Amino acid sequence: MSWTEITILVDKAKTGDREAFGELVVRFQGSVYAMALARVRDPIEAQELAQEVFVHAMRKLPQLRDARCFAGWLRRMCARMAINRMTRKGPIFGTEPEMLDGFEGDFRTPDELLVLAEEKAGLHAGLRKLKDLDRSTLEAFYLRGRSLKQMAREFETPVGTIKRRLHVARARLKDVLEGREPGTGAESMAIQKELKDKKRTKQLALAV
């Protein structure tokens, strides 16, 4: 999808076109999730944050003056909402995301650029510690913005298997970001047990 097409979708979405906004969500969900994950360091919280960002963006989109600034506006919204989310869990008080909704462009302070660079470096370092299949699955979906159907074609694998791989890979990445070996955390162990149980049930069904 070209930036011209994205601008057209933004203009349509600003008028209340839900289908156009849905296309924008598909295009940007991977990058928003990746940024959210780099900040909150928890796959489940990152998913919740990404959903909140898009809900907030849909409500505030008419305030965006220049459709060409949508990507930067969305990134800043995600950053501020992540800060706000973490603020509720600690003593530091942050800026409400609504305060920056009206600002377009891609300006960041040196401190913000440094924090963003550190977060990206930490995320990519975590990805490098994963096995090739886990890393390529996460990168395709969250960094390159591939849909499940596109990944199914590229990996020559059913959509259901892609979903399962993402589920497992997210848990392993969480382990790495929290300083554990991939697959050794409680969530990873639970997923592995669930998959083994499903496999055993399927084997028993085939044996009957």
Automatic annotation (TrEMBL):
One of its GO terms (molecular function) is sigma factor activity. It comes from the Bacteria. The keyword Transcription regulation applies. One of its GO terms (biological process) is DNA-templated transcription initiation. Residues 124-173 form the RNA polymerase sigma factor 70 region 4 type domain. The keyword Electron transport does not apply. Gene3D superfamilies: 1.10.1740.10, Winged helix-like DNA-binding domain superfamily/Winged helix DNA-binding domain. Keywords: Sigma factor, Transcription, Transcription regulation. Residues 24-89 form the RNA polymerase sigma-70 region domain. NCBIfam families: sigma70-ECF. Belongs to the sigma-70 factor family. ECF subfamily. This is RNA polymerase subunit sigma. The lineage of its organism: Bacteria, Pseudomonadati, Planctomycetota, Planctomycetia, Gemmatales.
